[in-house]
Amino acid sequence: MRLSEDELAGVVDTFGGLTRAELEQAVEEVAFRAGADVDAESVATWVDDAIDAYHLVAYDGGDRTLYVAGPRAFPEEPPHGEDLPHIMDVEPRHVDRAALGEQVHDRLTDEATAALAGGNEERAHELLDVSYDLEAWAPVDCTDVRSRLDARL
Q1: Do you know which Pfam families this protein is assigned to (predicted)?
Q2: What CATH fold (topology level) applies to the domain 5-87?
Q3: Maximum CA extent, the chain
Q4: This prediction's pTM
């Protein structure tokens, strides 16, 4: 069993945000309910892939980092995901979308700089697409990043 990036986004979206440990526990619970086994290493890889693809993003809320559905996600409840609020001892959380948008914009800027410096054209194209999604998702302006990417592509 492998959860898609959108299903992972659906898991965190159920609560408004989860810590990394809570997210991994939630995925294990969903797998268990589906009669499947997942190992921690696989779950960590799925989460890392979803973060890399901007389906999940980290929100530094000061006292903890929460993972939330990102600008490229179309959150989808995984099979047996409806059971999670009853299984996990996690209250719904609220994330400041403006602050989160700024954090994701900073990450996008850093990754665009690295992709351009490293000549990674494929990643630069992906990040160009992310810039449009990010603007639709949060109150940020990605013109600066997009202009740099466009100029090189």
Answers
A1: DUF7109
A2: Arc Repressor Mutant, subunit A (1.10.10)
A3: 50
A4: 0.93
Mean pLDDT of 80-103: 94
Mean pLDDT of the chain: 95
- pLDDT value at 120 more than 90: yes
If phi > 0 it is left, if psi is from -120 to 50 it is alpha, else beta; for residue 106 that is alpha
Give the start-to-end residue ranges of the domains of the chain.
5-87, 97-152
Q: DSSP readout, 67-91?
A: EEE-TT----PPTTGGGHHHHS---
CA atoms within 13 Å, Cβ hemisphere of 149: 26
